[in-house]
Amino acid sequence: MKITVSKGDLLTGINVVSKAVPNKTTMSILECIMIDATGSSIVMIANDLELGIQTTVEGQIEEHGRIAVNASIFSNIVRKLPENDIYISTEGEKINIVCEKAKFSILGKAGDDFTYLPDVERNDYVTLSQYTLKNIINKTIFSISTNEGNGMMTGELMEIKDDSLKMVALDGHRIAIREIGLKEKTKEEKIIIAGKTLNEISKILGGDTEKEVKIYITEKHVVFEFEKTIVVSRLLEGNYYNIESMLSNQYSTSVTVKRKDLMDCIERAALLVKEDDKKPIIMMISESSMKLKINTTIGSMDEIIDIEKTGENMNIGFNPKFLIDALRAIEEEMITLYLVSPKAPCFIRNEEEKEKYCYLILPVNFVTVD
Amino acid sequence: MKITVSKGDLLTGINVVSKAVPNKTTMSILECIMIDATGSSIVMIANDLELGIQTTVEGQIEEHGRIAVNASIFSNIVRKLPENDIYISTEGEKINIVCEKAKFSILGKAGDDFTYLPDVERNDYVTLSQYTLKNIINKTIFSISTNEGNGMMTGELMEIKDDSLKMVALDGHRIAIREIGLKEKTKEEKIIIAGKTLNEISKILGGDTEKEVKIYITEKHVVFEFEKTIVVSRLLEGNYYNIESMLSNQYSTSVTVKRKDLMDCIERAALLVKEDDKKPIIMMISESSMKLKINTTIGSMDEIIDIEKTGENMNIGFNPKFLIDALRAIEEEMITLYLVSPKAPCFIRNEEEKEKYCYLILPVNFVTVD
User: Rounded to a whole number, what is the distance in Å from the CA of A102 to chain B's nearest CA?
Assistant: First the structure.
């Protein structure tokens, strides 16, 4: 293989496909990026067998061929090369990388054991802007479970119905739901996408409102296609939790508050919580103000913030982290909490058509202190 | 104690004195900042017994008193408070921190076991700009030994003689020497300052050429005084190495090269060196160019750069890290290496009056490959 690629294009390609290179693996081929110039273009691929990413890099092919190269070594070398064209050639498994007067030789792999992306049928698709997809992922993904043993909780539900796309994440203590409108009606789909895939996708997406992503869904895979890149991920198998049964529109108390005031206050309270500690923050809701209190081994804190309230007064306790996560994911200036009782879930939701959200948080028991 | 301080001033004070709070200690009083408002001003102090820092904070004292507070908890709380006045009061060992509607209570310590800064006699002093001191530290300190068992190598020599101040750092493989002129002649001094002190001082110093630092030296301590802050550090005891005997002005080969070209090239070569690997970079000096080569378990690299040379051709090997550290500490566009033989130290030095430097690096043996 003999190819010439500009440093900038090569580095962009490496950064994109590297997202599918696992941090830790005992299979050295998985640590590799495949550089494939056997066809008419230069393609780079990484595949950890759950998640595969392929991207096309601009450049000249002088001699066809392919080679697999350790992603981290290759990336470090390219990053440090001068901003100029890079000439990559192979002699057997030896890779020569030349840029201006710098010449590197490193050992690659023929890559016979490299797994290319699965050949997924791509017919129907949903189109979103890169910004919208990145956004809906970032505003829900914090609610998935990070415990690998938790099966479907480690992924997110993506539900497409009529002309809307809904994403749901839950970890047993909270649920995050976001729903957006689509430009046109599409085939109904209900899939569970691995959290890792969504995390990596959201890092690669440019956040551009003008650029699009196509999402293809098959029985076993989801494919994201944008610009020169294709991301293929195996779906998590199983039936997702029945969300509808957990949601309710009834409430006895609603509290409307400036999001930033509430968030700042809870962030301050959280300073007193050590990592393994599970001390709740207690909201004491009264007529036009709410007192927030926390009492831990480090110290105590209380603060009063202004609210608009309907319904009954109530004292209710929460894990401050869950509240902070939800409040950070909302952009609106004012938010409303809907409460049923100190033992029932709290909902933060809006009913706007454009981008609906619903964050459900389970309360925690607390010992009354006042 | 009852005091009022603006958040900004308080946080600046905390950040300064926190540099003397050890990361790990079994003595909980060392983790504390003493807030002392027993006198006419509000003073904050931290002292790990080797290094002590004291700073004065603007504010109002309503009731005199003092309290020691855990530095990390206090710093986290203050950082998250609104940008406004903070009212701190004590009830026994309880500390109340109030800012706008937020009220914190944490437990402090009466601080009877807190060690104030030693009362060091301050007579003669040397004056430098903050920029100059920060600079001379940063450009030498990387050459000290980080191995705590290495005694005096973990500190730097500061030598004041006539109207110049010299700092020396060495770790057995290399020496860094910087010398600057002083405005006036001062008493001759030769002290060894702990690396930790120098590191922390260089972080606190603002890097301002207009603002000054006074350095006082006594038999056992060095004191840095600037703006509202006093830093006291115990000196390392003993006689420093005899540097003069290691230096030499004789050479058989001199190589003048663009600093950035050489540094970029060695940085690229260093990519092929694993942490525990000790593979040298080999410089093959010929008439008007120098080939740099490295060969490791990861791969090989070579690059040719333009030089101006006097004297004999030579092949010599170095630990690339030591060369990179020295080259990063130099600002000049062109540098000159002075070499005696492949077994003798290499010197990178200038002879300019304004700010002299000399970096000595020992070569390493290598197996000839070409």
Answer: 4
Tokens at residue B130, please?
């903050």
User: ipTM of the assembly?
Assistant: 0.87
Those residues with Cβ within 8 angstroms of residue A320's Cβ, 6 or more apart along the chain or in another chain: A266, A267, A269, A270, A273, A280, A281, A294
Q: Which domains does chain A have, with CATH numbers?
A: 2-107 (3.10.150.10), 125-236 (3.10.150.10), 247-361 (3.10.150.10)
Q: How many Cβ contacts (< 8 angstroms) between chains A and B?
A: 70
Q: How far is it, in rounded angstroms, from Cα A160 to Cα A187? A: 7
DSSP state string for A44-86: EEEE-SSEEEEEEE--EEEE--EEEEEHHHHHHHHHHS-SSEE
Q: List the one residue out of B365, B346, B347, B370 whose CA is nearest residue B292.
A: B370
Asked if the C-beta of B107 comes within 8 angstroms of chain A's C-beta atoms, the answer is yes
Four-CA torsion B126, B131, B136, B138, nearest 10 degrees = 140
Contact A323, A304 (CB under 8 A): no
How buried is A124 (Cβ within 10 angstroms: 0-12 exposed, 13-18 middle, 19+ buried)? middle
Q: Which among A107, A272, A302 has CB closest to B299?
A: A107
Residues β-bridged to residue B69: B33
Residue B101 and residue A77: Cβ atoms within 8 Å?
A: no
pLDDT tens by residue, B68-115: 999 999 999 999 999 999 999 999 999 999 999 999 999 999 989 999
Whole-angstrom Cα distance, residue B53 to residue B203?
13
Give the burial class of B352: count Cβ atoms within 10 A of its Cβ; 0-12 exposed, 13-18 middle, 19 or more buried.
exposed
Residue-wise pLDDT for A133-177, tens only, equals 999 999 999 999 999 888 899 999 999 998 999 999 999 999 999
pLDDT above 90 (res B160): yes
